[in-house]
Batch of 2 targets.
Target 1
Amino acid sequence: MRGRYVILSLVLLVLGFLISYSYQLTSERNLDHAISSEQWKKEFETRSLLIEKEEKNSDLQKILFEKQEEVKEIERSLKDQKQVYYNLVEDVEKFRMYVGDLPVAGNGVRVTLEDASYIPDGENVNNYIVHESHIFNLINELNISGAEAISINGQRISSDSYIHCNGPVITVDGKQFPAPFVISAIGDPNVLTPALNIAGGIIDQLAYDNIVVTVENKAEIKMDPLFHDQRVSS
């Protein structure tokens, strides 16, 4: 009988150990499952938050792109306006130069007209001296050929300048100048000089009228504004 009790005690001890071990293992599994569930919940929330941030970033990038395009459009508009203003200022400066409000300098030509050095006996002296018509014709040819500014003996002229001949003296806008008459023109000498020397052109006409003509290309000609005490023209 004692042996049976011992065996029964051992069986009960083993059974208790197995039950205890099984309970402990089950508890640990439930705890692991609970921890895994909590981690999954946190990961889900983190992923959801990242997705939300990515969507916001995407929206912000779209807005940024739109703003960048607007800025580029404004910059292009300002550039166009700046170019327009620059062109207007440039045109105004050119017009002021043409009407004589500004001093001007540049390369060009200098044409000197002189009375004939020899007058045959019995000939009319008026046929051998420079008249205002000769100067007018020369100035017209220079203007047609692209001269930007013209002066006579240093006196800058405009479209409404008054030129009058009185014997060997010409009057330009109220100022008198004796011969020789130096007409300076600012412009491209490679255009002005050939235009003056064209066959049958103004130089041939002046020579036919017994006028002594000298044409020189000048690297620099300076002219003061109109309504200024102008005495310099090189």
Note: The first strand starts at residue 104 and ends at 114.
Target 2
Amino acid sequence: MGGTDRGAGRRVAFLGDGLVADGRWQEWVPDYDVSNLGIPDAKVEQVLEALDRVVDDQPDAVVLLAGPTDFDRRGSTVEHVVRTLESILVEVRRRLPGVRLLLISVVPGDERSAERRREANRHLWQFAATVRAQYLDLWPALSDKSGELTAEYRGQGGGLSAAGYDAWVAELRPALERLWDGPPMSRPISIVEL
């Protein structure tokens, strides 16, 4: 953007909830042409409804992180979060067949939701390969021994602190590079309805 070739062929759309929206992605990953399509305080169905923005952006890669907002509120089931995130991935793949996909694990939260978040991540990790998405597990970098978000990584209002984003970006940079190691998708994946 802006007349430079920085990030040429490496347009990355960050899609997700408030953790994505609050990120300074262009600053943190300057080798890419970044679009921040995060939606503050969004639940997974709101992210699904925003897919037209991703398609309009025509990125070379999509980084998806959503689900923490759903688990921070009572009432969202693991199945609902997982199925909606799977739908997002399938739709991105269908509508942008050549895009590179990076799915980020649902990040740790508090003790009440730790097991549900872990369960969602187990399902998402298994599903990612079916849409040829790479999966980045942030739990080793962000959680303490009990499965909660490490205290120094907790920001105000349930978000991440600056140190939390630093830990995420340290994992993200090599994951983004790996996205370009293999060829992009060149044809749509057929999704068979059962």
Note: The longest helix spans residues 78-95.
